[in-house]
Specification:
Blueprint (H helix, E strand, L loop, with lengths): L1 H14 L13 H6 L16 H8 L29 E11 L7 E16 L4 E11 L5 E9 L8 E8 L32 E10 L4 E8 L16 E10 L3 E16 L2 E18 L3 E17 L4 E17 L8 E12 L6 E13 L2 E10 L6 E10 L1
Antiparallel strand pairs: 1-2, 1-16, 2-3, 3-4, 4-5, 5-6, 6-7, 7-8, 8-9, 9-10, 10-11, 11-12, 12-13, 13-14, 14-15, 15-16
Protein backbone atom coordinates (compact mmCIF):
# COMPACT_ATOMS: atom_id res chain seq x y z
CA UNK A 1 0.00 0.00 0.00
CA UNK A 2 2.89 2.33 0.83
CA UNK A 3 4.48 1.70 -2.60
CA UNK A 4 1.22 2.47 -4.41
CA UNK A 5 0.86 5.73 -2.44
CA UNK A 6 4.39 6.76 -3.39
CA UNK A 7 3.61 6.18 -7.07
CA UNK A 8 0.46 8.30 -6.88
CA UNK A 9 2.40 11.14 -5.23
CA UNK A 10 4.92 11.02 -8.09
CA UNK A 11 2.09 11.17 -10.59
CA UNK A 12 0.42 14.15 -8.95
CA UNK A 13 3.75 16.00 -8.83
CA UNK A 14 4.24 15.53 -12.55
CA UNK A 15 0.69 16.61 -13.36
CA UNK A 16 1.24 19.89 -11.58
CA UNK A 17 3.73 20.87 -14.30
CA UNK A 18 0.89 20.94 -16.82
CA UNK A 19 -0.73 23.99 -15.22
CA UNK A 20 2.00 26.35 -16.49
CA UNK A 21 1.97 25.59 -20.22
CA UNK A 22 1.11 27.94 -23.11
CA UNK A 23 -1.45 28.09 -25.93
CA UNK A 24 -1.28 25.81 -28.96
CA UNK A 25 -1.98 25.12 -32.64
CA UNK A 26 -1.42 22.39 -35.36
CA UNK A 27 0.38 20.33 -38.20
CA UNK A 28 1.84 16.84 -39.85
CA UNK A 29 1.53 15.09 -43.30
CA UNK A 30 -2.20 15.27 -44.05
CA UNK A 31 -2.44 18.67 -42.37
CA UNK A 32 0.36 19.89 -44.64
CA UNK A 33 -1.31 18.40 -47.71
CA UNK A 34 -4.76 19.90 -47.11
CA UNK A 35 -3.51 22.96 -45.19
CA UNK A 36 -5.76 22.24 -42.20
CA UNK A 37 -5.36 21.74 -38.46
CA UNK A 38 -4.75 18.31 -36.89
CA UNK A 39 -7.88 19.12 -34.87
CA UNK A 40 -10.04 18.37 -37.93
CA UNK A 41 -9.35 14.61 -37.57
CA UNK A 42 -8.07 14.15 -34.00
CA UNK A 43 -9.65 14.60 -30.57
CA UNK A 44 -8.70 15.22 -27.87
CA UNK A 45 -5.17 14.91 -29.34
CA UNK A 46 -3.09 12.92 -31.79
CA UNK A 47 -3.18 10.01 -32.47
CA UNK A 48 -6.81 9.31 -31.47
CA UNK A 49 -9.29 9.81 -34.31
CA UNK A 50 -12.70 11.41 -34.03
CA UNK A 51 -15.59 10.53 -36.40
CA UNK A 52 -14.36 12.74 -39.24
CA UNK A 53 -10.86 11.22 -38.96
CA UNK A 54 -12.27 7.70 -39.14
CA UNK A 55 -14.26 8.64 -42.25
CA UNK A 56 -11.14 10.23 -43.75
CA UNK A 57 -9.16 7.00 -43.16
CA UNK A 58 -11.89 4.77 -44.64
CA UNK A 59 -11.91 7.01 -47.74
CA UNK A 60 -8.30 6.07 -48.39
CA UNK A 61 -6.84 9.03 -46.47
CA UNK A 62 -8.47 11.57 -48.76
CA UNK A 63 -11.03 14.33 -48.44
CA UNK A 64 -13.45 13.40 -51.20
CA UNK A 65 -14.91 16.90 -51.55
CA UNK A 66 -11.64 18.81 -51.37
CA UNK A 67 -8.61 18.47 -53.62
CA UNK A 68 -5.24 19.41 -52.20
CA UNK A 69 -3.78 22.21 -54.36
CA UNK A 70 -0.94 21.23 -56.71
CA UNK A 71 -0.49 17.89 -54.93
CA UNK A 72 0.55 15.99 -58.09
CA UNK A 73 3.01 16.79 -60.88
CA UNK A 74 1.20 17.38 -64.23
CA UNK A 75 2.70 14.56 -66.34
CA UNK A 76 0.28 14.76 -69.27
CA UNK A 77 -0.70 11.13 -68.56
CA UNK A 78 -4.04 10.66 -66.82
CA UNK A 79 -2.98 7.12 -65.88
CA UNK A 80 -0.01 8.36 -63.81
CA UNK A 81 -0.13 10.19 -60.47
CA UNK A 82 3.22 11.41 -59.13
CA UNK A 83 3.64 13.43 -55.95
CA UNK A 84 5.49 16.71 -56.14
CA UNK A 85 6.99 15.75 -52.78
CA UNK A 86 6.88 12.41 -50.96
CA UNK A 87 4.45 12.92 -48.04
CA UNK A 88 6.30 12.16 -44.81
CA UNK A 89 5.59 12.64 -41.13
CA UNK A 90 7.47 11.83 -37.94
CA UNK A 91 6.25 10.77 -34.52
CA UNK A 92 8.69 11.29 -31.67
CA UNK A 93 7.87 10.31 -28.05
CA UNK A 94 10.04 10.45 -24.96
CA UNK A 95 9.44 9.53 -21.33
CA UNK A 96 10.98 9.24 -17.92
CA UNK A 97 9.87 5.98 -16.31
CA UNK A 98 10.04 4.65 -12.78
CA UNK A 99 9.77 0.95 -11.89
CA UNK A 100 9.26 -0.19 -15.47
CA UNK A 101 9.29 -4.01 -15.52
CA UNK A 102 9.81 -4.06 -11.70
CA UNK A 103 13.21 -2.36 -12.04
CA UNK A 104 12.63 -0.06 -9.02
CA UNK A 105 14.67 2.62 -10.76
CA UNK A 106 14.06 5.74 -12.81
CA UNK A 107 15.15 5.67 -16.45
CA UNK A 108 15.24 8.19 -19.30
CA UNK A 109 13.55 6.44 -22.23
CA UNK A 110 13.98 9.08 -24.90
CA UNK A 111 13.33 8.40 -27.67
CA UNK A 112 10.76 5.83 -26.61
CA UNK A 113 9.01 5.87 -29.99
CA UNK A 114 10.41 7.24 -33.25
CA UNK A 115 8.31 6.58 -36.36
CA UNK A 116 8.65 7.59 -39.98
CA UNK A 117 5.20 7.60 -41.65
CA UNK A 118 4.00 8.07 -45.22
CA UNK A 119 0.63 7.93 -46.92
CA UNK A 120 -0.94 9.27 -50.07
CA UNK A 121 -3.18 8.76 -53.10
CA UNK A 122 -1.92 6.70 -56.04
CA UNK A 123 -5.17 7.28 -57.95
CA UNK A 124 -8.74 8.32 -57.22
CA UNK A 125 -9.40 4.78 -55.89
CA UNK A 126 -6.02 3.57 -54.58
CA UNK A 127 -4.06 4.85 -51.57
CA UNK A 128 -1.21 3.56 -49.43
CA UNK A 129 -0.12 3.83 -45.82
CA UNK A 130 2.99 2.61 -44.01
CA UNK A 131 5.33 3.48 -41.22
CA UNK A 132 8.78 2.36 -40.17
CA UNK A 133 9.21 2.10 -36.41
CA UNK A 134 12.81 3.24 -36.07
CA UNK A 135 12.79 2.99 -32.30
CA UNK A 136 10.51 1.55 -29.62
CA UNK A 137 11.84 1.17 -26.10
CA UNK A 138 15.44 1.31 -27.35
CA UNK A 139 15.09 -1.27 -30.16
CA UNK A 140 14.64 -1.05 -33.92
CA UNK A 141 11.31 -2.71 -34.72
CA UNK A 142 10.94 -2.24 -38.48
CA UNK A 143 7.81 -2.02 -40.58
CA UNK A 144 4.49 -2.59 -38.80
CA UNK A 145 1.49 -1.07 -40.62
CA UNK A 146 1.98 -1.24 -44.41
CA UNK A 147 -0.95 -1.67 -46.79
CA UNK A 148 -2.69 -0.54 -49.96
CA UNK A 149 -6.31 0.58 -49.87
CA UNK A 150 -8.59 -0.05 -52.86
CA UNK A 151 -11.67 2.10 -52.29
CA UNK A 152 -15.11 1.19 -53.67
CA UNK A 153 -13.75 -1.94 -55.35
CA UNK A 154 -15.43 -2.47 -58.77
CA UNK A 155 -18.07 0.09 -57.66
CA UNK A 156 -19.35 -2.41 -55.09
CA UNK A 157 -19.00 -0.10 -52.09
CA UNK A 158 -16.40 -2.50 -50.68
CA UNK A 159 -13.02 -1.22 -49.48
CA UNK A 160 -10.08 -3.63 -49.73
CA UNK A 161 -7.01 -3.38 -47.49
CA UNK A 162 -4.06 -5.50 -48.63
CA UNK A 163 -0.81 -5.81 -46.71
CA UNK A 164 0.16 -5.76 -43.03
CA UNK A 165 -2.05 -4.44 -40.22
CA UNK A 166 -3.35 -5.42 -36.80
CA UNK A 167 -6.06 -8.07 -36.78
CA UNK A 168 -7.80 -6.04 -34.04
CA UNK A 169 -8.04 -2.88 -36.18
CA UNK A 170 -11.76 -3.38 -36.93
CA UNK A 171 -12.36 -3.56 -33.16
CA UNK A 172 -10.17 -0.92 -31.51
CA UNK A 173 -6.98 0.36 -33.12
CA UNK A 174 -4.12 -0.03 -30.65
CA UNK A 175 -2.01 2.46 -32.59
CA UNK A 176 -4.34 5.35 -31.76
CA UNK A 177 -4.78 4.69 -28.03
CA UNK A 178 -3.64 7.45 -25.68
CA UNK A 179 -1.91 5.24 -23.07
CA UNK A 180 1.45 3.50 -22.95
CA UNK A 181 -0.40 0.55 -21.41
CA UNK A 182 -1.70 -1.63 -24.23
CA UNK A 183 -5.03 -3.36 -24.82
CA UNK A 184 -3.65 -6.49 -23.23
CA UNK A 185 -6.09 -9.15 -24.44
CA UNK A 186 -5.18 -8.49 -28.10
CA UNK A 187 -1.63 -9.74 -27.49
CA UNK A 188 -2.45 -12.90 -25.53
CA UNK A 189 -1.62 -16.36 -26.93
CA UNK A 190 -1.35 -19.52 -24.76
CA UNK A 191 1.66 -21.82 -24.94
CA UNK A 192 3.48 -21.89 -28.28
CA UNK A 193 0.55 -20.49 -30.27
CA UNK A 194 1.45 -17.71 -32.72
CA UNK A 195 -2.14 -16.54 -33.26
CA UNK A 196 -2.97 -13.17 -31.70
CA UNK A 197 -5.10 -10.16 -32.54
CA UNK A 198 -1.91 -8.24 -33.32
CA UNK A 199 0.07 -7.58 -36.50
CA UNK A 200 -0.74 -9.92 -39.37
CA UNK A 201 -0.28 -10.10 -43.12
CA UNK A 202 -3.41 -10.56 -45.19
CA UNK A 203 -6.37 -8.64 -46.51
CA UNK A 204 -9.43 -6.98 -45.07
CA UNK A 205 -12.74 -6.31 -46.84
CA UNK A 206 -15.01 -3.60 -45.46
CA UNK A 207 -18.54 -2.66 -46.52
CA UNK A 208 -20.38 0.21 -44.79
CA UNK A 209 -24.13 0.64 -45.30
CA UNK A 210 -26.37 3.70 -45.00
CA UNK A 211 -28.23 2.00 -42.14
CA UNK A 212 -25.16 2.48 -39.92
CA UNK A 213 -24.17 -1.18 -40.32
CA UNK A 214 -20.58 -2.08 -41.23
CA UNK A 215 -19.50 -5.59 -42.24
CA UNK A 216 -15.80 -6.54 -42.22
CA UNK A 217 -13.90 -9.70 -43.08
CA UNK A 218 -10.19 -10.48 -42.73
CA UNK A 219 -8.17 -13.29 -44.35
CA UNK A 220 -4.91 -13.67 -42.43
CA UNK A 221 -1.75 -15.77 -42.28
CA UNK A 222 -2.45 -16.25 -38.57
CA UNK A 223 1.20 -16.48 -37.47
CA UNK A 224 2.00 -12.85 -36.71
CA UNK A 225 5.02 -11.03 -38.11
CA UNK A 226 7.60 -11.96 -35.45
CA UNK A 227 8.52 -15.25 -37.14
CA UNK A 228 10.16 -13.54 -40.12
CA UNK A 229 8.18 -15.79 -42.46
CA UNK A 230 5.20 -14.71 -44.54
CA UNK A 231 3.36 -17.83 -43.38
CA UNK A 232 4.39 -20.84 -41.30
CA UNK A 233 1.80 -23.26 -42.68
CA UNK A 234 -0.78 -23.66 -45.46
CA UNK A 235 -3.70 -22.51 -43.33
CA UNK A 236 -5.42 -19.13 -43.51
CA UNK A 237 -7.42 -17.68 -40.64
CA UNK A 238 -10.69 -15.77 -40.98
CA UNK A 239 -12.20 -12.98 -38.92
CA UNK A 240 -15.70 -11.54 -39.32
CA UNK A 241 -17.17 -8.49 -37.62
CA UNK A 242 -20.53 -6.74 -37.80
CA UNK A 243 -21.13 -3.38 -36.13
CA UNK A 244 -24.21 -1.20 -35.84
CA UNK A 245 -24.65 2.38 -34.73
CA UNK A 246 -27.52 3.09 -32.34
CA UNK A 247 -28.39 6.76 -32.48
CA UNK A 248 -25.68 9.42 -32.48
CA UNK A 249 -23.63 8.17 -29.56
CA UNK A 250 -23.51 4.36 -29.46
CA UNK A 251 -21.95 1.68 -31.64
CA UNK A 252 -22.23 -2.07 -30.95
CA UNK A 253 -20.18 -4.77 -32.60
CA UNK A 254 -19.47 -8.49 -32.46
CA UNK A 255 -16.64 -10.48 -34.04
CA UNK A 256 -15.73 -14.10 -34.72
CA UNK A 257 -12.19 -15.31 -35.43
CA UNK A 258 -11.54 -18.86 -36.57
CA UNK A 259 -8.34 -20.53 -37.67
CA UNK A 260 -5.98 -23.47 -37.59
CA UNK A 261 -2.24 -23.41 -36.96
CA UNK A 262 0.60 -25.90 -37.21
CA UNK A 263 2.58 -26.20 -33.96
CA UNK A 264 5.27 -28.52 -32.55
CA UNK A 265 5.91 -30.36 -29.31
CA UNK A 266 8.52 -32.97 -28.36
CA UNK A 267 6.71 -35.63 -30.41
CA UNK A 268 6.58 -33.56 -33.60
CA UNK A 269 4.11 -31.29 -35.42
CA UNK A 270 0.41 -31.12 -34.60
CA UNK A 271 -2.56 -28.96 -35.61
CA UNK A 272 -4.44 -26.68 -33.25
CA UNK A 273 -7.79 -25.02 -33.86
CA UNK A 274 -8.24 -21.46 -32.59
CA UNK A 275 -11.55 -19.68 -32.07
CA UNK A 276 -12.12 -16.19 -30.68
CA UNK A 277 -15.30 -14.18 -30.39
CA UNK A 278 -16.76 -11.31 -28.43
CA UNK A 279 -18.72 -8.06 -28.40
CA UNK A 280 -17.47 -4.49 -28.31
CA UNK A 281 -19.16 -1.25 -27.29
CA UNK A 282 -18.34 2.37 -28.11
CA UNK A 283 -20.08 5.32 -26.48
CA UNK A 284 -19.11 8.82 -27.57
CA UNK A 285 -20.70 12.06 -26.36
CA UNK A 286 -19.32 14.73 -28.74
CA UNK A 287 -15.70 13.63 -28.05
CA UNK A 288 -16.08 14.97 -24.51
CA UNK A 289 -16.81 11.69 -22.78
CA UNK A 290 -15.90 8.39 -24.44
CA UNK A 291 -16.26 4.81 -23.23
CA UNK A 292 -14.73 1.85 -25.12
CA UNK A 293 -15.31 -1.74 -23.98
CA UNK A 294 -14.12 -5.07 -25.41
CA UNK A 295 -14.65 -8.69 -24.38
CA UNK A 296 -12.81 -11.62 -25.99
CA UNK A 297 -13.29 -15.34 -25.35
CA UNK A 298 -10.72 -17.68 -26.88
CA UNK A 299 -10.45 -21.47 -27.24
CA UNK A 300 -7.32 -23.39 -28.35
CA UNK A 301 -7.71 -27.11 -29.05
CA UNK A 302 -4.08 -27.88 -28.15
CA UNK A 303 -0.92 -25.98 -27.20
CA UNK A 304 2.52 -26.91 -25.93
CA UNK A 305 4.37 -25.13 -23.10
CA UNK A 306 8.11 -25.49 -23.52
CA UNK A 307 8.95 -24.48 -19.93
CA UNK A 308 6.96 -27.39 -18.47
CA UNK A 309 7.26 -29.81 -21.41
CA UNK A 310 3.50 -30.39 -21.25
CA UNK A 311 0.69 -30.31 -23.80
CA UNK A 312 -2.58 -28.64 -22.85
CA UNK A 313 -5.86 -29.40 -24.60
CA UNK A 314 -9.03 -27.34 -24.85
CA UNK A 315 -7.44 -24.25 -23.32
CA UNK A 316 -9.93 -21.47 -22.53
CA UNK A 317 -8.83 -17.84 -22.24
CA UNK A 318 -11.01 -14.80 -21.73
CA UNK A 319 -10.56 -11.13 -21.02
CA UNK A 320 -11.10 -7.62 -22.17
CA UNK A 321 -10.71 -3.99 -21.30
CA UNK A 322 -12.69 -0.89 -20.46
CA UNK A 323 -11.40 2.55 -21.41
CA UNK A 324 -12.72 5.98 -20.54
CA UNK A 325 -11.55 9.29 -22.04
CA UNK A 326 -12.67 12.63 -20.65
CA UNK A 327 -11.87 15.90 -22.44
CA UNK A 328 -14.05 18.75 -21.15
CA UNK A 329 -14.25 20.71 -24.42
CA UNK A 330 -14.04 17.86 -26.92
CA UNK A 331 -11.62 18.59 -29.77
CA UNK A 332 -11.03 22.07 -28.30
CA UNK A 333 -9.76 20.69 -24.99
CA UNK A 334 -6.30 21.63 -23.75
CA UNK A 335 -6.21 18.70 -21.35
CA UNK A 336 -7.79 15.26 -20.99
CA UNK A 337 -7.88 12.24 -18.68
CA UNK A 338 -7.89 8.57 -19.65
CA UNK A 339 -8.56 5.51 -17.53
CA UNK A 340 -7.91 1.95 -18.74
CA UNK A 341 -8.66 -1.35 -17.00
CA UNK A 342 -7.29 -4.63 -18.41
CA UNK A 343 -8.39 -8.12 -17.41
CA UNK A 344 -7.24 -11.52 -18.71
CA UNK A 345 -7.94 -14.97 -17.26
CA UNK A 346 -6.81 -18.32 -18.67
CA UNK A 347 -6.58 -22.02 -17.91
CA UNK A 348 -2.84 -21.38 -18.17
CA UNK A 349 -2.24 -19.29 -15.04
CA UNK A 350 0.80 -17.47 -16.40
CA UNK A 351 -1.51 -15.55 -18.72
CA UNK A 352 -3.64 -14.09 -15.92
CA UNK A 353 -3.38 -10.30 -15.92
CA UNK A 354 -5.24 -7.44 -14.26
CA UNK A 355 -4.21 -3.80 -14.32
CA UNK A 356 -5.55 -0.28 -13.91
CA UNK A 357 -4.08 2.77 -15.63
CA UNK A 358 -4.57 6.50 -15.12
CA UNK A 359 -3.25 8.75 -17.89
CA UNK A 360 -3.32 12.56 -18.20
CA UNK A 361 -2.30 14.81 -21.05
CA UNK A 362 -1.91 18.52 -21.74
CA UNK A 363 -1.56 20.05 -25.21
CA UNK A 364 1.30 22.49 -25.67
CA UNK A 365 0.53 22.54 -29.38
CA UNK A 366 -1.97 20.52 -31.44
CA UNK A 367 0.90 18.19 -32.30
CA UNK A 368 2.86 18.33 -29.02
CA UNK A 369 1.48 17.18 -25.69
CA UNK A 370 2.82 16.46 -22.23
CA UNK A 371 1.70 13.16 -20.74
CA UNK A 372 1.89 11.33 -17.45
CA UNK A 373 0.72 7.83 -16.59
CA UNK A 374 0.49 5.38 -13.71
CA UNK A 375 -0.21 1.65 -14.16
CA UNK A 376 -0.81 -0.72 -11.26
CA UNK A 377 -0.79 -4.48 -11.88
CA UNK A 378 -3.05 -6.33 -9.46
CA UNK A 379 -1.53 -9.65 -10.53
CA UNK A 380 1.97 -8.34 -9.73
CA UNK A 381 1.85 -5.64 -7.04
CA UNK A 382 5.59 -4.93 -7.35
CA UNK A 383 5.00 -3.70 -10.89
CA UNK A 384 3.71 -0.15 -10.53
CA UNK A 385 4.98 1.90 -13.46
CA UNK A 386 5.04 5.70 -13.34
CA UNK A 387 5.95 7.70 -16.44
CA UNK A 388 6.02 11.31 -17.62
CA UNK A 389 7.05 12.69 -20.97
CA UNK A 390 5.90 14.02 -24.31
CA UNK A 391 4.26 12.87 -27.56
CA UNK A 392 4.92 14.85 -30.73
CA UNK A 393 4.25 14.60 -34.45
CA UNK A 394 5.52 16.80 -37.26
Amino acid sequence: MKKASTHFICLISVLSMFLFSEKADSIPAFARKYQISCQVCHAPAIPRLKAFGEEFASNGYRMTKYEAPRYFIPTGDDQLSLFREIPLAVRFDGHVMYNDDKSKKASFTTPYILKLLSSGELSDKVSYYFYFLMNEGGSIVGIEDAFLIFRDLFKSGINLYLGQFQASDPLFMSEIRMTLEEYHIYGVAPGNSFTKLKYERGMMLERPFKTGTTVQMEVLNGCGIEQGEFDTDKNKNLMFRVSQTAGKHISLGIFLYTGREKLDDITGPFASNVTMFGPDLKINFSDKFIINMQYVRRADSRVYIEETGLDHKNVATQGGFAEMIYSPKGDMSKWYLTGLVNWTQSDISGLDYRSATLHAGYLLRRNVRLVSEYTYQFTNPDHGRVSAGFVSAF
